[in-house]
Amino acid sequence: MQDNRVVNAFAELRSAGEKTLLPFITAGYPDLETTRALLEDVERRGVRICELGIPFSDPIADGPTIQASYTATLETGVTVKDIFEMVREYRASASRERAGTSTDDLALLAMVSYSIVFRCGAEAFCTEAAEAGFDGLIVPDLPVDEAGAFYRKALQMWEKTVGHEHPHTAVALNNLGLLHCRRKQYDPAERFFERALIIREKTLGPAHPEVLAVLQNMVRCYRKSGNARQAKKSQQRIDRIKVKKTPMSPEEQ
């Protein structure tokens, strides 16, 4: 199963000991034709990942430059559907130009307000963004208490792309566990933690720090839910792992 472009880019850069610039471009500023030309230009220059900002009337924590570009773009009437169509055309054109070469695709992340996602519907937005050619979303104003359904949909699409046992799938499952635990929805939280634990043990080994991190989350969740028996069992697993990792003293040797 093919990996996500963002995952591929980071894996290859990490393996080569290299870094990449992650530029930010306001989609549709000053027009969509220019945005597409900029994507083609940064890709030619070796950029592996680019953020595309989807204009919103009330951006949060964006500086005056980005806010001004959003306002100017919205005044021209550019819509989310227009942006998706531009990305589709860019992907189709880039695919034709790259045919028969080993050039890597530019990964695209949509920087988008949750208000836009909510208005479109989380499932519809995620589906359309993926079909257009986006590889991920950055939703900076997503309320924690409303993140569960959105995150689950994103996870379903992620698993279709990279598989159920990818290490990053475990990251998503662990985050879902934390979200549900925060909302005192302990049963689903425990199930997500357990799935994350299985993947991390299988891909990283039983004594890896990220395995310990999931177990510690499980202990906290079990304690909050009043499941003292499971909390004790998880804590015992942590203690056994720590004991095995502790080097013997000179006296013990």
Describe the structure.
- With 253 residues, the protein is an alpha/beta fold.
- The chain has two domains: 1-142, TIM Barrel, CATH 3.20.20.70; 164-245, Serine Threonine Protein Phosphatase 5, Tetratricopeptide repeat (Alpha Horseshoe).
- Helix content is 63%, strand content 6%.
- The chain contains eleven helices and four strands; from the N terminus they run H-E-H-E-H-H-E-H-H-E-H-H-H-H-H.
- It has a four-stranded parallel beta sheet with strand order 1-2-3-4.
- Helix 2 (32-44) links the parallel strand 1 (24-26) and strand 2.
- Helix 2 runs parallel beside helix 4, helix 8 runs antiparallel to helix 9 and helix 9 (186-204) runs antiparallel to helix 10.
- It is globular, with a radius of gyration of 22 Å.
- The chain starts with a helix and ends in an 8-residue tail after the last helix.
- Mean pLDDT is 87; it is low at 247-253.
